[in-house]
Amino acid sequence: MxxxxxxxxxxxxxxxxxxxxxxKIKPVYTPDDLERIGFDYEKDLADPGxxxxxxxxxxxxFRSRNWTTRQYTGFGTPEETNERFKLMIxxxxxxxxVAFDLPTQMGYDSDDPMAEGxxxxxxxxxxxxxxxxMAFKDIQLNRIGTGLTINAxxxxxxxxxxxxxxxxxxxxxxxxxxxxxxxxKEIVGRGAWIYPVExxxxxxxxTIEYSMKELPRCNPVSVAGYHIRESGCSPTQEISYALMxxxxxxDNVVAxxxxxxxxVGRFSFNLNIYGNLWExxxxxxxARKLWAKxxxxxxxxxxxxxxxxxxxxxxxxSGMTKQQPENNIMRGAYYALAAALxxxxxxxxxxxxxxxxxxxxxxxxxxxxTFQILMDEIGLRDTVDPLAxxxxxxxxxxxxxxxxxxxMKKVEKAGGMVEAVSSGYVQREVAKQAYEFEKNIQExxxxxxxxxxxxxGVDMEVELHEHNEEWERLQIDRLKELKRDRDNKAVKESLKxxxxxxxxxxxxxxxxxxxxxxxxxxxxxxxxFRDVFGExxxxxxx
Amino acid sequence: xxxxxxxVLLAKPGLDGHDRGAKVVAHAxxxxxxxxxxxxxxxxVPSIVNQAIQxxxxxxxxxxxxxxxxxxxxxxxxxxxxxxxxxxxxVVGGVIPNKDVSTLxxxxxxxxxxxxxxxxxxxxxxxxxxxx
Lengths: 542, 132
Hints:
By secondary structure, chain A is of the alpha/beta class. Chain A has helices at about 30-35, 40-45, 60-65, 80-90, 100-105, 130-135, 155-165, 185-190, 195-215, 225-230, 235-255, 260-265, 275-300, 325-340, 360-375, 390-415, 415-420, 425-440, 470-485, 490-505, 510-515, 520-535; strands spanning about 5-10, 15-20, 25, 70, 70-75, 95-100, 145-150, 175-180, 220-225, 270-275, 310-315, 345-350.
């Protein structure tokens, strides 16, 4: 897949392979390599379902349970999104993953001047509970798990999800939501931040604490190394940053007097697949092992289930190319294969047209079919961790593990993740890698098919998702209507009480749920936090 | 003349937070000997124009990944013309489908660089077209 560096001789024979993580691959691996790394089956692997879970978190892997397919979905108005949700479910998709538009992610209502031109563009527009009522209409919220891809205002969306479920007659104990809720990675890599680092992390602590007590089936945080990798870091940095971020959130809740073992079992991860196949598989195996080991060492977590690294391993968008876009169908299939070989619980793929815009219905279905072919047709469910015991894979897994630990030490040295992000250390590391990588592609040191090798000149046109300008007007009209119809006195009081809890540093979740139930808007709630917390100021690093 | 470095304001307008492309291109322009001012994320169009005037740049570069490049560029070119801010070269990069290129040119954007364009091409275009 061409993102390793290959040094070749004049006859095109490969002399050296250097993975992005800096590890060199040997031409041949033998039992001697296992001996060199001190390989021990019980200590390094163990059976699937046994500590340190290198092979799998469940003893029967995909045999007992197929993976959850959760394509990132949402655009336009809540009705448009609801239709696409139902379509994907009718075609066999087993989870939802909600894409919100940028104004919603940034805590602006659709009628805010900052929202102009963006309403419903890259995701669904949500202003109030009324929009969730339309988006989740006729969807069994006690049966399906829903990822909410939102971070700065994840607390608001989790509250709204509970509010909509209760409105539909479900109990809060039976709903399963996974808000992404990882603000540190937004600051490093995806840019949808609002508040300064400290209060932003506190909001995440609030959702974790609240879920632990009230929402037993929710996963309050999905630590997303994915986006840091998309921003350019290496696979080993991706895992080391993700683990360090997770520790930062754990520390916030532990400081409130709880034990990590009480809540960390509900953590999940969102990790990236693109690049070299072997490096990817070894990365996930090393990540599972390290998470379990470090939770034990750092936080004395003993409950086996709380040590599982669960998550969505998804095909990365930055692997996709604008040139020769149909090649992305094949890339997606290989990324999905990597996810399957790595034992992903949940998966998603960027669709082939996503180097252009959000996917068409046809492209999204093609991604879903890619998963179904792997699992139902060619045998990826047959046996657990099929690559285990390979001299090569086990050696590489160990080498990746060592590299990840090395990177983690650098972050520790920079003061831990909160400090390393506040100071811009991590951003600088990522920017450096991104530039180097791009330069390597442009200089032909790293191959990208259709980009710097086997090029065709003119790219074929593909059918693209069309954004409808009307959605913005419709959403704004509706918002006006809502503000006219709702009990504005109740809204005002609920927002006041939210402000009070935010200022007094109490858990904001109960107040947020009250606000949502009164039809306070996302912008109104986000602005309360803006007033209390202020806004993040970004260092200029490139 | 010709001694002064080309000054570029690289801006991220709107709410889109994907800044890998912007940062990589900013770095490449700096390597190529230009002076680069990076605005950071979430900039409004009027604020970008203001910064361009204050920093006295020769080039305004926009990086847009959200798909909102047409409304954003239209707004920016409107203000640029209205305020008569001198001969500043406006270029845009990001996730831009081929079919939008002619619309962007009609709006008045000089250089359009979709994903995958090489640094050299961007640098060459700016060197040849920036008015100093």
